[in-house]
Backbone:
């Protein structure tokens, strides 16, 4: 009976020990599950923050892409305007050169006209002097005759 009692006590002690062990394991498991839940919650929060940053960066990139497209379009417009200005400048330079040729030709014509006018004036003065001399000669001839 005593051996049975000792065996029963040993079994009870073993059951108590195993029960304590199971209780400790459950407690540890609960703690671990709590830690895991906390880690999962923390990871979810970090993931949400990372997604928010990604969305923000995506919006920035989209804006920069649009800005770049606009800048490229403006550059294209400016390049086209420069082509037009360059073409207009060439036309203006050609017209200016033509005007300069016409002016130079006009100056030559004017010089020739002035020269011919001077020649005509000299001839006129020479004729006038000749007439004056003829008149004087005729007048002096009249004086002697009278």
Residues:
């Amino acid at each position: 009976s005593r051996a049975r009692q000792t065996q029963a006590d040993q079994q009870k002690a073993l059951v108590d020990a195993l029960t304590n062990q199971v209780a400790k394991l459950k407690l540890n498991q609960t703690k671990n599950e709590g830690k895991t839940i906390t880690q999962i919650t923390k990871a979810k929060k970090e993931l949400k923050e990372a997604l928010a940053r990604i969305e923000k960066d995506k919006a920035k990139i989209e804006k920069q892409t649009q800005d770049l497209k606009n800048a490229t379009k403006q550059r294209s417009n400016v390049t086209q305007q420069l082509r037009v200005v360059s073409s207009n400048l060439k036309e203006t330079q050609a017209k200016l050169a033509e005007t300069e040729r016409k002016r130079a030709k006009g100056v030559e014509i004017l010089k020739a006209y002035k020269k011919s006018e001077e020649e005509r004036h000299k001839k006129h003065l020479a004729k006038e002097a000749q007439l004056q001399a003829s008149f004087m000669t005729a007048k002096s001839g009249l004086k002697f005759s009278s």
